[in-house]
Amino acid sequence: MNTPRRLWCEWAWTGGAAPDRGVLLTVVDGRLASVVSGTDRPADAEYLSGLTLPGLANAHSHAFHRALRGRTHADGGSFWTWREVMYRVAERLDPDSYHRLARAVFAEMALAGVVCVGEFHYLHHGPGGHHYDDPNAMGHALTTAAAEAGIRITLLDVCYLAGGLGKDGRHLRLSGPQLRFGDGDAGAWGERVADFSPEGDHARVGVAAHSVRAVPVRDLPEVVAFADGARVPLHVHACEQPAENAACLSAYGATPVRVLADAGALTQRTTLVHATHLTDADVDTVRAHGVSVCLCPTTERDLADGLPRTGDLVAEPGAVRLSLGSDQHARTDLFEEARAVELHERLRTHRRGTLGSGALLRAATVDGHTGLGWDDAGSLMPGARADLVNVALDGVRLAGTDPARATDAVVFAATDADVRHVMVDGSWTVRDGLHTRLPDTAHELDTAIKELL
């Protein structure tokens, strides 16, 4: 057993409606051994001023999309034209360049308070679909990058078999850059995933069906069976675009949510990503199956996807867990994602207060971790992983904050720039706003992106 480390938090959020004052944390072997509120500062405890939160979980990421930031706005367009630009980036990556880019992207996440990422990974193979000597070389590049950036990762290995749904309701063949995504059929995909064993305790494997556009309905049960057999998370893009819903209705006479439900894909280990365009029946189905919904507001507004029916999903308490993702990394700021969930709902309904800061923080912490298969993370309680995000309250954005309402202030006003310290599994990944392993993260990002583009 390592020597216990004691940290005294001026204010800390332990899951209630407001932060607690004077919270003493004892860390042993990367876990919280004790959490005691209302204490005076002991002389031997490290002092954390401001507000301390559990580590944040970024439940939906495409690391290589970070290279597109600021490069897709000049000509307007839509999700579908944006996708063509994304494909051009995907064509250029190999295991080495992907490792360098992802390491910098994950370090940027750490600086924003993210301690765990769900990487929605479909860039599996080489150009033209050629398999690398190690068919999981790209997956290893990502898990190694996360280790070097000092965060945990759930690699959500994506089954991607078709190039979309045509006007006749048939699935299109993979072509061009999409050939890098496919394994031929669901059986071959499952064999490759089963052979992947990431090194290190920081990494776990989950699975994903990209969407009903990319996985024909006949193949969905095999993906579901793999997830069930391995007892791992299953994530799916669903109802992101009206055109996706229209194509699905044309092909199957049902919405994507109904198709997934009929395939047995909706369980308590399932996370639907986006779920932007739901019918009344879809909302009822999602609530009835107890699935999680991952919202990615900065991406959904960047791509003009629309506003999800968040209030309808959470109208029945406890039926639907929400989590948050930065998706294409238009921003890497989980505070922005959290507040946008509520602010977007205000725009949709003209009402305030659907979700308060406590619910939004739960989405960013414990519920995000649960959806990624880390049930022992995301809260400040004895036995949990020692993941901490310390937020300064004395910067220009939060100056004048009432510390007794610091959770409201942080959720609705803070940015990633207010993150001061980040601890992952008992080790400091960020100190005083500086990454301890990649101190010049901006240079790492700049070099990796320019090398790629």
Gyration radius from CA atoms, angstroms: 21 Å
Q: Biggest sheet: strands, sense, closure?
A: 8 strands, mixed
Name the CATH architecture of the largest domain: Alpha-Beta Barrel
Output the structural class.
alpha/beta
Fraction of residues in helices?
Answer: 25-40%
What's the β-strand tally?
16
CATH class (first level) name of the largest domain:
Alpha Beta
Counted up, domains total: 2
Mean pLDDT: 96
Q: Tell me the strand order in the biggest sheet.
A: 3-2-1-4-13-14-15-16
Continuous helix count: 15
Content of β-strand: 15-25%
The CATH topology of the largest domain turns out to be: TIM Barrel
What's the N-to-C terminus distance? 47 Å
What are the segments in which pLDDT stays under 50 over at least 5 consecutive residues? Answer: none
Overall 3D form: globular
**In CATH, what is the homologous superfamily of the largest domain?**
Metal-dependent hydrolases
What do you see in this structure?
The protein has two domains: 107 residues, Urease, subunit C, domain 1; 316 residues, TIM Barrel. The protein contains 15 helices and 16 strands. An eight-stranded mixed beta sheet has the order 3-2-1-4-13-14-15-16. An eight-stranded parallel beta sheet has the order 5-6-7-8-9-10-11-12. Strand 14 and strand 15 form a beta hairpin.
Protein topology:
Elements: E1 5-12, E2 20-28, E3 31-36, E4 46-54, E5 56-61, H1 79-90, H2 95-111, E6 114-121, H3 137-149, E7 152-159, H4 186-194, E8 203-209, H5 220-230, E9 234-238, H6 242-252, H7 256-262, E10 270-274, H8 280-289, E11 292-295, H9 297-302, H10 310-313, E12 321-324, H11 334-349, H12 357-364, H13 366-371, E13 388-391, H14 406-413, E14 419-424, E15 427-431, E16 434-435, H15 441-452
Parallel strand pairs: 1-4, 5-6, 6-7, 7-8, 8-9, 9-10, 10-11, 11-12
Antiparallel strand pairs: 1-2, 2-3, 4-13, 13-14, 14-15, 15-16
Helix pairs in contact: 2-3, 2-15, 11-12, 11-14, 12-14
